[in-house]
């Protein structure tokens, strides 16, 4: 696995198959598709071999437009280079005249397979600073409003001084705030009806955009160059250093939506109309700039074209069962609205970020298409006062060691060797519909194109590219030995957060082989394969009706083990897997049990949130989501990895579970008793105090590096009403039943340890000891579940694979 991580450290790429099957049939038999997880603007450590930034324009092939790279064949005497993709002979321009074998430009150095260009010139730098449009929900209780105002004030303090800021609030009505009305005693606000969709022309008319400068009779109205005066734009988008006082004054006076709400109804909330007005306003004022809409939503939309539920409380918000039965009356209309909004935002080059904080659903499932296609950030929490929300908002605007490296206006393109086609990308991007010979007829995700728009991207944004091998005949042995390389080139043109336009180029070479030999096995990356399968199964669950994810995963795993395992037919005891494949069944076992596949007891909003994060994270983070990491702390040894199994629980041990979305510190029964007795506060028990502190320090390091910031859960063995919780699940798992179960269980202790929080750990462990088990581990624990353990799963897998 180390060599694959080294390749990722060099190029930001992980591929399941690093030696590629040579024909279409062999690729199909490999089950996991030929694919790549690529992080387009991954941050590389600064050292002698770090990626150089070249201050000149790249040299392109005149036929396929690929860029000069270390795999190009160079004739130094004739000053010609041959493109490895189309074999076109290209002449070097005059400024490459001094090129020799000993005097190479950086792009031909063998170690610089990833390189970045920053061409000089005023045209390469954006004239518009970063733009932030805050869209704030006011249909929330006073306590939540105070939390939200506090978080927004902190965020405004962290904004870059030159950034432009706008504010829209919404509830029953949408209010566009004029922050740049200098000289006005009272800031002006323009009000729009929440139930009515407002067109761009109507918006500009009502905001008085054409008082000083008449409206152009023809053409598209877009920014200062096309029909708008800079003074008019400056009324709604104001530099942060100019409007800080005005904006803070508006926020301080912001009140809960004043319209009365009958006790049997929900608040009237017009989320869709507010986002549509924000998108139209930015499209008119700053098209093509790195603008972000930051939506802070505290409940479900009940008004306007994107309502997800009626105002009547007697109508429940759609569940997974409703979506499966197609009995969610508002769902398809809302998705269609946000799909149209996503196309508008992609055309404008703008990003939609969503911060959803409520105990109920807010419509993340419907908003997913708009957030994902624009490359937006998403944070889901119970409250605006929760640390998950507050810390995540700070991270968005934080600059320093752990900044997100937010960039904008990205365009991603692919070049491949002629025997490979692109099926599509699963990840935060939108198709630019650039059809050509590289496009496969089979489409996965955003397909039928070789170029994609990435309105928003950051240092961690990762794309899953799925390829198709189109070579049908078995290659001749002599040809295979002389020409057995496939080439890939990824081009990412983006606006760096300093405002400069840059082009990052990654060129890869991978060898292909004929037949299922040991070469194919030697190049298998189990972690990357698990992540590709997770993205594929999540994608199929969303688009294919009647799709059975468990059956699909099981068939894929059986087929794979049958093909690559060593065994005697019909002899399960003889079955074994190469070390290159040995952990893959374990990943599939945990993927089957994960929140990406098991939607029971998760709302559609939670499922959409989990999948959006999975689809944008790199391999390392995604593997933690699929199979969480578990670290054990005890007096007997230092911190050490533990098996993700219920057997890891012991009375004299502390466990630290990292499941990406949640970080759990779990104290064994004896440790918990000592802590409650206050032994860690006594000078003679410093070793115990250090043992208690160690997992907190490690959890702090994990949380500091991650976005969204995970939820920290601290709990004790035997402090959880696990039996009650699983009984609730069997009764249907409704939110109210769980709340009632929680309220009837013993309360939190003095340190805030919740009696139900242990479920965050127990739900992730392999249930090797359950209430059905014959023998129990002394000092250990059992899990109240009917799920099969990994041992039973592996036994069934072996029996089916050898048939």
Automatic annotation (TrEMBL):
Domain of life: Eukaryota
Name of the protein in its database record: Protein transport protein SEC23
Organism from which the protein derives: Citrus sinensis
């Amino acid at each position: 696995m180390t060599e694959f991580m080294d390749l990722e450290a060099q190029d930001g790429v992980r591929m399941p198959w690093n030696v590629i099957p040579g024909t279409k049939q062999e690729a199909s038999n490999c089950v996991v598709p030929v694919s790549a997880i690529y992080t387009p603007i991954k941050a590389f450590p600064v050292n002698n071999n770090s990626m150089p930034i070249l201050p000149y324009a790249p040299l392109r092939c005149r036929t396929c437009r690929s860029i000069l790279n270390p795999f190009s064949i160079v004739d130094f005497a004739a000053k010609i280079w041959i493109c490895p993709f189309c074999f076109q002979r290209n002449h070097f321009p005059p400024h490459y005249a001094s090129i020799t074998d000993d005097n190479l430009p950086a792009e031909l150095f063998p170690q610089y397979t990833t390189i970045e260009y920053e061409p000089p010139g005023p045209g390469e730098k954006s004239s518009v600073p970063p733009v932030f449009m805050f869209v704030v929900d006011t249909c929330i209780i006073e306590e939540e409003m105070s939390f939200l105002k506090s978080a927004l004030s902190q965020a405004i303090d962290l904004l870059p001084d030159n950034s432009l800021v706008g504010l829209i609030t919404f509830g029953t009505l949408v209010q566009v705030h004029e922050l740049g009305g200098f000289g006005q005693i009272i800031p002006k606000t323009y009000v729009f009806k929440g139930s009515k969709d407002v067109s761009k022309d109507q918006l500009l008319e009502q905001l008085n955009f054409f008082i000083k400068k008449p409206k152009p009779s023809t053409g598209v109205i877009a920014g200062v160059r096309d029909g708008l005066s800079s003074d008019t734009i400056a009324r709604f988008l104001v530099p942060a250093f100019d409007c800080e006082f005005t904006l803070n004054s508006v926020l301080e006076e912001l009140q809960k939506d004043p319209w009365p709400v009958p006790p049997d109804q929900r608040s009237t909330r017009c989320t869709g109309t507010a986002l549509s007005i924000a998108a139209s306003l930015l499209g008119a004022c700053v098209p093509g700039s790195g603008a972000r809409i930051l939506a802070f939503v505290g409940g479900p939309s009940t008004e306007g074209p994107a309502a997800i539920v009626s105002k009547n409380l007697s109508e429940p918000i759609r569940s997974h069962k409703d979506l499966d039965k197609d009995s969610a009356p508002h769902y398809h209309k809302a998705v269609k609205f946000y799909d149209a909004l996503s196309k508008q935002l992609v055309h404008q080059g703008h990003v939609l970020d969503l911060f959803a904080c409520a105990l109920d659903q807010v419509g993340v499932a419907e908003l997913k298409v708009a957030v994902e296609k624009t490359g937006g950030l998403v944070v889901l929490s119970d409250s605006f006062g929760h640390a998950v929300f507050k810390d995540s908002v700070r991270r968005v605007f934080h600059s320093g060691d752990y900044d997100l490296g937010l960039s904008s206006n990205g365009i991603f393109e692919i070049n491949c060797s002629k025997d490979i086609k692109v099926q599509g990308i699963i990840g935060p991007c939108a198709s630019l519909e650039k059809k050509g010979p590289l496009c496969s007829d089979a489409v996965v995700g955003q397909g039928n194109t070789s170029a994609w728009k990435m309105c928003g991207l950051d240092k961690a944004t990762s794309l899953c590219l799925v390829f198709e091998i189109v070579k049908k005949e078995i290659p001749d042995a002599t040809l295979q030995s002389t020409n057995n390389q496939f080439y890939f080139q990824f081009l990412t043109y983006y606006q760096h957060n300093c405002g400069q336009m840059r082009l990052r180029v990654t060129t890869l070479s991978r060898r292909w082989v004929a037949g299922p030999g040991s070469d194919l096995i030697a190049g298998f990356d189990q972690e990357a394969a698990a992540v590709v399968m997770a993205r594929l199964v999540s994608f199929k669950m969303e688009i294919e009706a009647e799709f059975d994810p468990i059956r699909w995963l099981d068939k894929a795993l059986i087929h794979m083990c049958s093909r690559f395992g060593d065994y005697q037919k019909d002899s399960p005891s003889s079955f074994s897997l190469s070390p290159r494949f040995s952990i893959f069944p374990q990943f599939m076992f945990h993927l089957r049990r994960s929140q990406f596949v098991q939607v029971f007891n998760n709302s559609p909003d939670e499922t959409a949130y989990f999948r959006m994060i999975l689809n944008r994270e790199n391999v390392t983070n995604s593997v933690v989501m699929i199979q969480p990491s578990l670290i054990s702390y005890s007096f007997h040894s230092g911190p050490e990895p533990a098996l993700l199994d219920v057997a890891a629980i012991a009375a004299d041990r502390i466990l630290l579970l990292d499941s990406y979305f949640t970080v759990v510190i779990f104290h064994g029964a004896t440790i918990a008793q000592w802590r409650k007795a206050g032994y860690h506060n006594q000078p003679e028990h410093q070793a115990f105090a250090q043992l208690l502190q160690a997992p907190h320090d490690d959890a702090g390091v994990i949380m500091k590096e991650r976005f969204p910031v995970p939820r920290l859960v601290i709990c004790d063995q035997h402090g959880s009403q696990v039996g009650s919780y699983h009984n609730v699940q069997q009764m249907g798992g409704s939110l109210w039943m769980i709340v009632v179960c929680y309220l009837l269980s013993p309360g939190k202790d003095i340190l805030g340890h919740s009696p139900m929080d242990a479920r965050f750990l127990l739900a992730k462990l392999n249930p090797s000891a359950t209430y059905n088990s014959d023998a129990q581990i002394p000092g250990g624990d059992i899990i109240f579940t009917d799920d099969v353990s990994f041992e039973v799963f592996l036994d069934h897998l072996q029996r089916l694979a050898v048939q």
